[in-house]
Predict the structure.
Amino acid sequence: MIVLVLNCGSSSLKYQVLDMKNESEFSLLAKGLVERIGLEMGDITHSVTGKDKHKVHQPIPTHTEGIKGVLDLLTDAEHGVLKSLSDIEAVGHRVAHGGEYFNSSRLIDASVIEGIEKCCELAPLHNPANLLGIKAVETLMPNVPQVAVFDTSFHQTMPDYSYMYAIPYEYYDKYKIRRYGFHGTSHKFVAQKGAELAGLDFNNSKIITCHLGNGGSITAIKNGQSVDTSMGFTPVEGVVMGTRCGSVDAGVVTYIQDKENLDFKGVNAVLNKKSGFLGVSGVSSDARDIEGAAAEGNKRAALAMEMFKYSVLKYIGSYAAVMNGVDLIVFTGGIGENDPSVRQYIGERISYLGAEFNQSANDGLRGKDAILTKEGSKVVIAAITTNEELVIARDTMKLAK
């Protein structure tokens, strides 16, 4: 089954085309990125497996036009991988927020669209863009089945004492304020892949997954189910991130709002766009820039990186306590897969759990799956490459069939 995977943002969209033979046998035919949708001129970067990248610079006024541009490239005589659009048998969409409506991926129909629309209030930047992608495909390929894969659905197994906040209960009743968690497709994928690599039964294990990138979250997975996760009502809670502050005393927020005379948008910008690595270091939101500046003696950059690693370490400790132990700790995401120093910092500080960190296995490891503990270690540490698009394609294939 040939599946088109779409991940639509407010002014951009990422795509992949996969030929799915079955869950474990597949091939990536093409992938790409559409940027600057709605501006005077837009860009499409299109990559066919085994060929050089092809770039298109043209007006892309809407998501429909952006997806049409992608479909034109996919069927192009020179740059395409499909004979015609009829080769696409299903389309899978990454949808940011499913609220309490969706605890699994769903074949898209009117009721699913209605549920996604209701969650727009919870994810105002992402869900409306996801809906634009769904409606664009409806227009361009009306007979092709579509599937929604939700970032939040994996975390719907959390118990209420884990997802509730200790604020007046009426706010949950009225506004559904609770912890939802994000990166769910990635956490589930790397936990299953890591368990297989470590020789564990995913459905009878205690796993902590660390998805660390410009956005980051930690998840406790017990017997195959998410029981706690660091991101909350929004993706701003949890560990220190690129521009997000992570967990912070709520009193700090109201204090800054008062002192700086900020409205909601102003406070939101501080917490989501001006904090984290960028806010502490004053250098960049990118971990690579932070580490480079720290190596050159920039104390604020060094502080930002230390705060980040320390925040991850704290969540790992707390989730080991929540599950009364841990069998496997997984690192993934841009930082988790490619930064040996972060993995070393944490690996060397959790020996109390029974983890025997293998420095030689960790040194220089980037973008590969590997066990990072010594043979016989009570707790296994692993670096696992994530592939959220593959998760979406798998779910799409199963539901579309």
Remarks:
- Residues 299-322 form the longest helix (24 residues).
- The longest strand covers residues 26-35.
